[in-house]
Design brief:
Two copies of one chain form a homodimer. Chain A has 193 residues and is of the alpha+beta class. Helix content of chain A is 52%, strand content 22%. The longest helix of chain A is centred in the last third of the chain and has 25 residues.
């Protein structure tokens, strides 16, 4: 159950077996079936979760009923509404299982305890946050400056696995374009091949 | 010279005087005059910088010659092209002084050494990255879902100081709207008062 999490941590830092064992006591395993929700808008995000198996998406719904996808999280990724998790304020995000999932969840209290007792994990989370920030900044600058086709090609190149596992209308929503535009781009690219 | 940096660190963690003194040996002080550049597109970002005094902006220029602003950084903020800094690859950003600046710069080698010798700073950077990620995710979701007026009002509310110090055409560029749209929004809001 902790195989991927242990691997993810060891990719970035060294921790002892005792630290690993302590770490394991603080996580709650959770299974979600496809289409079940981990978090719904209006609730507080009580956990950050690590995906051992499956695929999550986090998204908001605007006043007009349109969905806007913040993140897809597959095996080896973390997911949460960080702001809600840290402040205990209600969330504006939904987090939904796009496939049957096996998750490891940790509460804020346990996370604080974990970082206090195993401070080398600060480095692990610092590096993960750093990488996430770089990717989010790129996506933001892409939103401001790139065409729909450029955004699509970057997504395919950066996350080929996710593209295979997510329905087209969610790819369109992630890119902030309509399904029709996405469909047109895909046809044009197929013709160029 | 290190007043704000020391304050910023002590807001989040406790470090000893010896650690503070070591920290100070690793930073290079740098003064920039208004309109000077810290980084230009095509160069490697050799430093992350802390702003003791003044105001920086980081931005890209797209194929059509339009500027897209990633960040304004005033006193107490950090600025860099993180990806270029971490990987030593060339940057697609410019970082420009919008006012006369007093900066503290640190190279990748010194930053690595600092984190190795004063590991409690991992926590400081983890918290800063976490806050930056939350703000960047909000801005991204705003780009996907909000009107120009909503984005403007959020910016005014979140960063009133920066709004006073930055010319209107850069505010428009930050928001991804034209100067004319920004001007219209401001007139409409003024009339509503």
């Amino acid at each position: 159950m902790f195989e991927r999490l242990t691997h993810s941590i060891q990719e970035h830092i060294s921790i002892t077996e005792a630290e690993q064992d302590f770490c394991k006591t603080l996580f709650l395993p959770k299974k979600l079936r496809k289409k079940q929700y981990l978090l719904q808008e209006g609730d507080v995000c009580k956990y950050i979760v690590f995906v051992e198996k499956g695929l999550l998406r986090s998204y908001t719904i605007d006043n007009k009923g349109n969905e806007h996808i913040l993140q897809f999280a597959m095996e080896g990724w973390w997911s949460a509404d960080l702001y809600s998790f840290l402040t205990n304020e209600i969330s504006s995000y939904h987090i939904e299982a796009l496939e049957d999932c096996e998750l490891l969840m940790i509460t804020k209290t346990s996370w604080d305890l974990l970082l206090e007792r195993v401070p080398v994990l600060e480095r692990y989370f610092r590096v993960l946050l750093q990488n996430n920030l770089i990717a989010t900044q790129r996506r933001l600058m892409g939103e401001l400056s790139e065409t729909a086709e450029e955004k699509y090609l970057k997504l395919v190149s950066a996350y080929p696995d996710i593209m295979q596992r997510v329905p087209q209308h969610m790819i369109a929503s992630y890119l902030g374009i309509t399904r029709e535009t996405l469909s047109r781009i895909r046809s044009q690219l197929a013709m160029k091949k």
